[in-house]
Amino acid sequence: MYTKNDLIKSFKEIGIEPKGTLLVHSSMNAVGEVEGRADTVIDAFMEYMKDGLLVFPTHSWSKENNKDNIFNPKNEKSCVGILTNIFRKRDGVLRSLHPTHSLAAYGKDAKDLIKGEEKRNTPCPREGAYGKLYDRNAQILFLGCTLKSNTYIHGVEEWNQIPNRLGEKPVEYKIVLDNQTIEAPVHPHQAPVEDVSKNYDKLREPLLEKNICRTGKIGDAVSYLCQAREMADLTSKFLQKDPDLFLDDQPVPEQWYKD
Prior knowledge:
- This protein is an alpha/beta fold.
- It has helices at 4-14, 28-31, 37-48, 82-88, 110-114, 129-135, 151-159, 204-209, 228-241, and strands at residues 21-26, 53-57, 70-71, 94-95, 103-107, 139-143, 171-176, 181-186, 213-218, 221-227.
- The longest helix has 14 residues, at 228-241.
């Protein structure tokens, strides 16, 4: 059984920068048995990143979310895992107001990261929170999950204006706060295939080859730690060569990234 100290040791070994910015995609099941369970995992992250900025996705795009297209950031559950739902309720954690792709942030510059998300009319615009991860040269940790969970690459495709990724007609959401209601139309993700993210895993080999991503274990979880800015830049180069790169599961041509 793993302890909080065991997890913190693993954070150091994989190379997480405690004073940097960290976005965590997660699978609690993959971590294995932890003393104190999921709460201890969140305790470990918050302690380790106390001098930095810790971010978890708290997305609410699933069919079970936002009944009648109403998003209440205080009580709308996240559809991306137990750790995200524990984290969003912790003292000092701030949740953005994006109705489908909110982020929860804790620590230095949390307010700045989530500022203005109620005004974004696409899931991951360059000027929004996901774009700010690029500006901050954040690290993105895939804790026991693959790069198929890489919402940031949805952003990179959006920034590169890849066609057929966003619906033409916005969904009319309402963000409900204590003292006001905000109209928030959002053009949802839309793709010509079931879900292009199922092919984002083809980035793993290029990212490892270019030392943009490293791998290690946190608990039992095989994990990947990637540099957001370099990952976006390399992916953009790939998309300039082939805008339809993620429409299939064929490997990225080695000559595109091997010297």
